[in-house]
Design brief:
Two copies of one chain form a homodimer. The first copy, chain A, is an alpha/beta fold and 243 residues long. Chain A contains eight helices and eleven strands. At the A-B interface, strand 7, helix 8 and strand 10 of A face strand 7, helix 8 and strand 10 of B.
Amino acid sequence: MKENKYNDQLFFDKYSKMARSEKGLEGAGEWHEFKKILPDFKEKQVLDLGCGYGWHCLYAVRQGAAHVLGTDISDKMLNVAKTKNADEKIEYRCIAMEDLDFPDASFDIVLSSLAFHYVEDFNTLMKRISSWLKKGGYLVFSVEHPVFTAYGSQDWYYDKEGNILHFPVDNYYYEGQRKAIFLDEEVIKYHRTLTTYINALLENGFTIKHLVEPEPPQEMMDIPSMKDEMRRPMMLLISAQKS
Amino acid sequence: MKENKYNDQLFFDKYSKMARSEKGLEGAGEWHEFKKILPDFKEKQVLDLGCGYGWHCLYAVRQGAAHVLGTDISDKMLNVAKTKNADEKIEYRCIAMEDLDFPDASFDIVLSSLAFHYVEDFNTLMKRISSWLKKGGYLVFSVEHPVFTAYGSQDWYYDKEGNILHFPVDNYYYEGQRKAIFLDEEVIKYHRTLTTYINALLENGFTIKHLVEPEPPQEMMDIPSMKDEMRRPMMLLISAQKS
């Protein structure tokens, strides 16, 4: 099932008020780690899957990319991208990433920020991305951590007074759909084990170059709730090279 | 701190009654996955770190290894190894793995089963193992999963009636010592993030070949509590090649 939650006006409006929406990359808690594992963009052909507002597309262009194709299932998100992050070297296309098709070796770099957990069939996607990449090309993505997606609700476990006790993990090996609460809205996401993420890469000709579970950045520690993010891993960042 | 818990008579006696102690490899829930990621042992020089009863040492010899050095901090464990799993091609040595030293390129394969979570400084150990391995050699190990070690107690979270609610994760990014309860005894283990495990390998010249969070084997599903192991990842198996 390909849900287009970001086209839901209420969800879209709430998302637009997040720090990562208003401030762009610098407002994203994982950006300080994600940018460290990005490859050299100079003269590169880049594909950004689930590009949203297009922040990473513009970043790639500013780092010297020859051309960036940003794709997203939500035209509402792309309309913002075309306003906020337009550039003559960026093309935005409204399409679900599962429906994309390209000739072999079309890209040097494939990016994806926090979008793969909306995709049901990860292995097929990796197989296809591997074919779209040139030999030696890079896939760099962030995804919600399996610890974060396993239980489903993505919420802490609290005591009666509402204090956080810990983060619950359950049903870890039962992969598939979860109904998560994000911005007080129900959003469909897909839980996968770490094993599935890594093996889909290894089996499709990738070498793992970096794997990072980003800690909250020191300068955001004064944001309420950010310190709690030291207690659980929420995201997984991976850089892999097609060998 | 190098704890020698397996030399504690009470703990040693309890451990000796576990299925993995009585039945050997076939009694270990992760063996069906671990053996799949082992390299070819023929004519190889093998080192087994924290070899315990020596089951993996004997397996390596039976698979054709030229010589196996099995090391363990506990002489009690090694006394059993010398009785149960002796072979002219196996040498057992009583020493903490942190105190070992070998010339560069001494081994083709380094193994370790469920012992690295007793080691405080993982990065230094990986650096040293990398130097002991020949180019192209393999390090294959199992370790308790970061999800399993994070909270500390390694127990489920229960309701008032004693039913399992979920598995708790907390203090994930705070690495270091944990006092776990294992066989009703307090045992010191070290929690590390997945990031630390993977980066220590990548930064010391290893390529990740396999990463598996083993599910309980189908034929053990009738053992009480084994089905619950579908709810949390307890172990992490990694095969890495020195490049």
